[in-house]
Amino acid sequence: MLSFYNMSQLQTIENYIRNSLLEKDERYYSVKIAFEQTQEYFKIYDCMESTCHCSVMREIYLKPKNSIINLSLRTHLSEKTLYRYRKKYISYFCYFFNGDVLSEAAIAGK
């Protein structure tokens, strides 16, 4: 999976996901399905590896947008770890969004 995002690309994709999840329009249905599949994947991963990725994802994408410092304090993760996790979540989301990593460029508007 591709994961060579800089911070502005990451924020652009995250804003797209966050806004799409709030929309009631059916054209964002595939985004919602991809997000649900990503969450389902990390639920299983959490059970197998004793991690907390699913709750971190909820904090990032389903709660009101906060500063990275605030997010870091709420999730009890360092900013560097949060950045690494966010890149990981976006990569998996993009995989589920189109079934391949080529969708990353489409979401980022390239």
The gross shape turns out to be globular
What is the tally of beta strands?
A: 0
Proportion of residues in β-strands: under 5%
N/C terminus separation: 17 Å
What pattern of helices and strands is seen along the backbone?
Answer: HHHHHH
- Low-confidence segments, ≥5 residues, pLDDT <50? none
Q: Approximately how much helix is present in the residues?
A: over 70%
Query: Which class of secondary structure composition applies to the elements?
Result: mainly alpha
Number of helices: 6
Short account of what is shown:
This protein is an all-alpha fold and 110 residues long.
Overview features:
mainly alpha; 6 helices; 74% helix; globular
Which secondary structure elements does this structure contain, and how are they paired or packed?
Elements: H1 7-22, H2 29-49, H3 53-62, H4 68-75, H5 79-98, H6 103-108
Helix pairs in contact: 1-5, 2-5
Please describe what this structure looks like.
With 110 residues, the chain is an all-alpha fold. Helix content is 74%, strand content 0%. The chain is built from six helices and no strands. It has helices at 7-22, 29-49, 53-62, 68-75, 79-98, 103-108. α1 crosses α5. The protein is globular and about 35 Å long.
